[in-house]
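USER: Note each token:
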Amino acid sequence: MGVATIKNLSSDLLKITDSYANEIRDKVESIAIDKSKDFVKELKRTSPEGKRGDYKKSWRYRKTAGSESLQTFEYTIYSEKPDYRLTHLLENGHACRNGGRAAQHIHIYPANNKIKAEYIDEVQKMIKKGI
């Protein structure tokens, strides 16, 4: 085998592995988008309604700014204005104006744990299946 042939083989192998890595990344990102949508649906289903009923409807997801590199991507699940201020208070409880404490309405952590487990399962299945 000549030197030129080895260089060509090396170049061809790099192209194949890059293509495979990009395919895996695209499939994992697709799973992440699907699970982000599921997370939002779960939060809309399990969140307390509140006086206006808007808190339950305020959940969204978006691609996290700065996560555009080839190796990473992130999605943020969030509550829109003005209801984003309620997430911590509802999840953890809070002191009331007239004394005492408001009860916790734990809804974010259970949804997070459920969706996280589903995401891991789907990625593992995809890897085992071989894309």
